[in-house]
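Q: Convert this sequence to structure tokens.
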Amino acid sequence: MNAVAKALARMNATNRALHGVSVQYARDGETIPLVAKMVQSDLEISDEAGLAITTRVIDFLVPCESLTIGGKLVEPQSGDRIQIQRAAGLEIYEVMQLGAEPAYEPADCYGIEWRIHTKRVKVQ
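A:
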């Protein structure tokens, strides 16, 4: 990791500490605690007829090295769940693809963080 990547990793860690939320990342019955930063994006998708549909998407920024399940470093995949405990209840977000795009993408050019695409599927 070069000096710029190290500085970016420190900046991201500070940003998560100040603005992050505690979440549980779940796959196949296993959960791991993470601190993630939530970001909102407006996404415009065109259907076959050319009709544009705009929706709000919630993404989570997480450090790539923090996603270890069963002792192995894993990549996010569609169907995984991210859970956040709020005063109003447990919010559950499902990792999903955005149209033809994958369910996650690098959040930076150094591979320090992933931007994981989700949709809120339930509040308990």
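The beta strands are 21-27, 30-46, 52-63, 68-69, 72-73, 81-86, 89-95, 104-106, 113-123.
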